[in-house]
């Protein structure tokens, strides 16, 4: 039996909703009114099939009338902003100065970081998020506490030390010759832990707060260890102007990351609102992905990300809560905000579109599409059980309530690799 094996095969009974192979130009889901989800001893999905008496001879946990679905994936969230959700202190740069940076400075205290890390992981699990891509603080000790909490919670997590060596408060500024060795130590300690559930990500905060030498060193570290890169780009016009002032050698915001070696097929670019056609084309050429954070964009008044620009170029799109500018850990809030964002642009997304983006689409964008994102046989059994009101029966009703009436749909259980992590 492998190191990941933890129990004999078992099955879960309930209704079932999962992304399915989509027809050209559309999103498709598979819905079963009564199903068995069979999980093998290694935590892999063996089968997802209509229920029939005697179809499985092992133990069956009956979760009806709950709906079994893939766990949500949050591709952009800030651990040190857990306690400042709702801090309406201005547009992006003012909000960072007034609300974010003072709170992030508190994470120099390992005890405080550990306390908030426990809150952070508890809120993710209760929201049905089984995978998260996380910005930590610039403090190595706090980042260590975050990884400890993710491991203890049983979550799948990709996280990184936030890199900043200029244009930030002294308490958060970490010079390159300290930050890169600290990041390297964290890679050695945590990358691949939890039998692969945990990964380290190279995490420059954004171009204005990072010097060129720091970004170049970070890119080399990412290349040396094949690490995911996450950062922000083109969230507001003021941020883009600050980038041009700090890095006049680049032709535009995206070109900063491109020239220092941070733009690769393993790069996640959060927000991506105010991009030129040239920048969108270059994102597509490099195989990078973007993370749509609509709730945060509304809250800070940052603008509207045009999904059509990404889709026209087949750029993978992930969905992120962006807590704490995002106002909820619940990815269903992000799905609903993505719908509103599209309406503002004269576009239209269906509940099925939004569900697929929050699961399989985000898994694809972060490089985990063959591992999680749907309830297909052979994938790891990261799934949740959601209970709906008794009158919500049909596929369309389930999707509508999931996306637009999330307060009526309660996350009852969550599993990662078949192991229960919530409640």
From TrEMBL:
InterPro entries: Amidohydro-rel, Metal-dep_hydrolase_composite, Metal_Hydrolase, Metallo-dep_hydrolases
GO BP field: guanine metabolic process
Cofactor(s) needed by this chain: Zn(2+)
UniProt-recorded Gene Ontology molecular function terms: guanine deaminase activity; zinc ion binding
GO cellular component, one term: cytosol
Annotated Amidohydrolase-related domain residues: 67-420
Name of the molecule in the record: Guanine deaminase
Organism: Sorangium cellulosum (Polyangium cellulosum)
């Amino acid at each position: 039996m492998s190191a990941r094996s933890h129990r004999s095969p078992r099955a879960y009974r309930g209704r079932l909703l999962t992304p399915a192979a989509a027809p050209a130009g559309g999103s498709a889901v598979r819905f079963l009114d009564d199903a068995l989800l069979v999980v093998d001893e290694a935590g892999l999905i063996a089968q997802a099939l209509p229920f029939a008496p005697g179809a499985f001879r092992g133990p069956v946990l009956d979760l009806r009338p709950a709906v079994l679905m893939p766990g949500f994936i949050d591709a952009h969230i800030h651990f040190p902003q857990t306690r400042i959700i709702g801090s309406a202190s201005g547009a992006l740069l003012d909000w960072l100065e007034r609300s974010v940076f003072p709170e992030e400075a508190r994470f120099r205290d390992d005890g405080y970081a550990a306390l908030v890390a426990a809150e952070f992981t508890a809120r993710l699990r209760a929201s049905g998020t089984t995978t998260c891509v996380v910005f930590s603080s610039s403090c190595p000790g706090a980042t260590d506490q975050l990884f400890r909490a993710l491991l203890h919670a049983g979550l799948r997590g990709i996280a990184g030390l936030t890199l900043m060596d200029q244009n930030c408060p002294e308490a958060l500024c970490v010079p390159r010759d300290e930050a890169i060795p600290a990041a390297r130590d964290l890679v050695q300690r945590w990358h691949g832990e939890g039998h692969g559930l945990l990964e380290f990500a190279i995490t420059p905060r954004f171009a204005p707060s990072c010097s060129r030498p720091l970004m170049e060193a970070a890119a080399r570290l990412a290349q040396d260890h094949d690490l995911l890169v996450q950062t922000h780009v083109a969230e507001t016009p003021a941020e883009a102007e600050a980038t041009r002032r700090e890095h006049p050698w680049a032709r535009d915001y995206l070109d900063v990351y491109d020239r220092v070696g941070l733009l690769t097929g393993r790069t996640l670019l959060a927000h991506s609102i105010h991009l030129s056609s040239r920048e969108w084309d270059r994102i597509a050429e490099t195989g990078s992905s973007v993370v749509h954070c609509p709730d945060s964009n509304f809250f800070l008044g940052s603008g509207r990300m045009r999904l059509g620009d990404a889709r026209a170029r087949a750029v993978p799109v992930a969905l992120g809560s962006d807590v704490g500018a995002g106002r909820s850990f619940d990815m269903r809030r992000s799905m609903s905000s993505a719908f509103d964002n599209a309406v503002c642009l004269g576009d239209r997304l269906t509940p099925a579109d939004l569900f697929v983006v929050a699961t399989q689409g985000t898994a694809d964008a972060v490089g985990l599409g063959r591992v999680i994102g749907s309830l297909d046989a052979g994938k790891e059994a990261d799934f949740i059980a959601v209970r709906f009101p008794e009158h919500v029966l049909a596929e369309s009703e389930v999707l509508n309530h999931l996306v637009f009436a999330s307060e009526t749909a309660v996350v009852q259980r969550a599993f990662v690799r078949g192991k229960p992590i919530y409640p």
